[in-house]
Amino acid sequence: MTQAAIAIDTLCKTYSGGKRALDGVSFEVPRGQIFGLLGPNGAGKSTLINILAGLVNKTDGKVAIWGFDIDAHPRNAKASIGIVNQEILFDPFFTPKETLEIQAGLYGVAKDKFDAMALLRAVHLEDKAHAYSRTLSGGMKRRLMVAKAMVHSPPIIVLDEPTAGVDVELRQQLWAYVKQLNQRGVTVVLTTHYLEEAEELCDRIAIINHGQLIANKPTRELVGMAQEKVVEVTVDRDIAAAPDNACFQKVELKGERVLVITYRKDQANAGEVLGAVQAAGLGIVDVSTREADLEDVFLNLTRAA
Length: 305
Known about the structure:
It is a single chain. The protein has about 300 residues and is an alpha/beta fold. It folds into two domains: about 5-225, 3-Layer(aba) Sandwich (Rossmann fold); about 230-305, Alpha-L RNA-binding motif (Alpha-Beta Plaits), CATH 3.30.70. About 30% of the residues lie in helices and about 30% in strands. The chain is built from ten helices and 14 strands. It has helices at about 45-55, 75-80, 95-105, 115-120, 140-150, 170-185, 195-200, 220-225, 270-280, 295-305; strands spanning about 5-15, 20-30, 35-40, 60-65, 70, 80-85, 155-160, 185-190, 205-210, 210-220, 230-235, 250-255, 260-265, 285-290.
């Protein structure tokens, strides 16, 4: 069980016309984790996921899914992974129950080993089991896609923007189900543009930009890379202009009494910042701080790249 759930080695994909979507990407997804795969639009995430799904042929490199090389053992590799694509793909004239039963047949899952109603119950669609799939709401269709990907009980599930267009309550239900899957030992690979979700859910995060891997670290370590910190200081009197100091990276006046000061943690500390405010002849009434988050790190890394 020390083997990676997904192992990607110098993966390249060049489309006809010369568009290079992936350029030597290498990383591993540890078994049993929730792994975040982030990047701007057009970074190469969907191409990578489509290669895992067998929908796109790689140009070069190696990919192994649950220990099975996708070239040498394609059937075993595909049986080891379930993909929830961004696009909602199923026949609108089948019911959710029929959709899952057909999917089970495609994967050769024996009838006595498959319970469509139990799977629909898990994604809160049991009451819609016999309705036409076209009548489901956007959030329900998204959850049906998750259930469809889990029909053959794969050890790995890939969720490509699973909460796009889903309201807050349904999003929370979906994440609760994802956490349950992970607790049962399923490895989850997640792409999302909701970075606060990735920060809360993922054990480890990789960031791709322009087809190249620019970061791959445990989530806490990645967030810790951010050096900027913001402190809001409420002073004891109205001021016309914000004071300046060498330890401030940036300072703004918010209203007439609140200073919004940005500083780098590797160059100053909060005590020095507050001391600089007092040295300008201002009394401090209140202080609040904002720590850097994954969004700050993501923007810094992608802008630099």
